[in-house]
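Let's see one such:

===
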Amino acid sequence: MTRTVLLTGATGFVGHQVLCTLADYPVQVRAVVREGWQGQLVNGMTNEQVITTGDLFAESADWWANVCSGVDTIIHVAWYTEPGKYLQSSKNIDCLIGSLNMAKGALQAGVRRFIGIGTCFEYDLTAGLLSVETPLKPLTPYAAAKAATFTALSQWLPSQGIEFLWGRLFYLYGEREDPRRLIPYLRSRLAVGKPAELTSGNQIRDFIDVTEAGRMITEKALGSDQGVINICSGVPVTVKQFAEKIADEYGRRDLLKFGARPDNLIDPPCVVGVK
């Protein structure tokens, strides 16, 4: 029997890549998307494969139980992530509550496996090198809501016989990235020969292409791992080095103005994942 996978966030930055990767596997995909966004789905999904909702985080456990009927595995990628707003937004609480209702519905429907997507910001970032054993110390409503979702589901779902896996994302870049983020900003400036104003660039980060992140999520979701995994490259790179690599594609390192913007004093100096 073909395995049915329910995916949330399929039109988003990360979820799009998961949806694309799922096409390489012998699974049936059921996508839950916001009303009006069906046209952004890929792989020629039929109406029967798409569930629409005004707000998936406002749906009840009973609604989810109906949607999850016949589903083997949930890959829950959706969350509120508008750049410049999501870290402090009260919408994180809505996402937390909605995710718990989804899990309750999954249990009612007899779902076998649940994969949730978290963030490296759940960790105590002062550790620098972050493994799945690093203590949690979220410092924003976004990170706290993610950590709370993880804590609740990692304790509850396995006790109910549902396999649970939580993937923590590090610094993503690539296809469909919001233009307000660092890499699109750099490319937009360099492409027209304008200077890009940056901080010192001394911060060490773990950058991973969103295409690779989507592949990792899908591979692990369809496997048997449980617990926590880091979705990361494991390679430490300074922001300056990364920016210079991009600038070299245009032959314009001279346009990178490091130090034009002040460093964020509360920004951690090093955030690198350990696979």
Notes: Residues 91-109 form the longest helix (19 residues). Helices lie at 15-22, 61-67, 91-109, 141-159, 182-191, 210-221, 239-250.
